[in-house]
Amino acid sequence: MIPKDPVILLSFVNTQLRDNYRSLSEFCNQYNVMEEEITSKLEEINYTYSDSVNQFI
Fold this sequence. Notes:
- This protein is mainly alpha-helical.
- The protein is built from 3 helices and 2 strands, in the order αααββ.
- Helix content is 54%, strand content 7%.
- A two-stranded antiparallel sheet has the order 1-2.
- The chain is globular, with a radius of gyration of 10 Å.
């Protein structure tokens, strides 16, 4: 299960992406979550996903 709080979610996802996954889609497949669910939640705190660095910035 992924965190619901956007700030905690940001930290969790970026750590996972850095350490374990090559892309957001790979992460989402593993956690069985829609990319849009994560991206929209993090957009609430003004973060967007960058393919080039594989992180939310």
